Amino acid sequence: RSAVLQTISFVNFINWSDNNIFKAAAAFANQPQFWKDFSMIFNSDMLKQRRAGIGFDVNAAELAAYVRKSKQPVRAAINYLLNQGFLPTKLADSFAIAVGGASMYRNRVNTYLNQGMSKQEAEQKAFLDFAEIAEETQQSARPDKISQQQRSVLGRLILAFQNTPIQYMRL
Q: Are 112 and 121 in contact (CB under 8 A)?
């Protein structure tokens, strides 16, 4: 249940400007670029750290080939990752961040390119923007992103299941 609920958090990356629902859909429609961005985010140090340092990489070409054969690319990607041996909730967390983040990242890169930044600058800034949104909206264990009550011994036991709603209330 936790893993399934985790996957819907990809919508945290939708906004009213450069990654609105239409632009996010357009980014998803460009399947080769989308899965490259997905793999880059999924393999980033940030998400590896969220998965507790598990040394697991997603090969973009292999994932794209697996997804290309399916009429349901999202389901195919989840199946591919589950076949790699991931625990469901850790997979769902990284999957949601990478799916939501891939369209947001690509659209933000395009925004910065249109503003005159170089490709490298645009990609770096877009990734920083993506990482900040992920840290603000995704369930976090970082001490600066959770309340003092959540960090306490009792809070870890009682409030652990309300971590995300508490973060949203704080935001």
A: yes
State how far the alpha carbon of 150 is from the alpha carbons of 3, 90, 120, 161, in Å: 21, 20, 38, 10
- Residue 154 and residue 162: Cα distance in Å, rounded? 13
- 110-153 confidence digits (pLDDT tens): 999 999 999 999 999 999 999 988 887 765 555 566 666 656 66
What crossing angle do the helices spanning 73-83 and 88-114 adopt, rounded to 10°? 130
CA-CA-CA-CA torsion sign (137, 140, 144, 145): positive
Q: Name, in order, each residue with C-beta under 8 angstroms of 72's C-beta and a sequence gap of 6 or more.
A: none
User: Is 0.90 surpassed by the pTM of this model?
Assistant: no
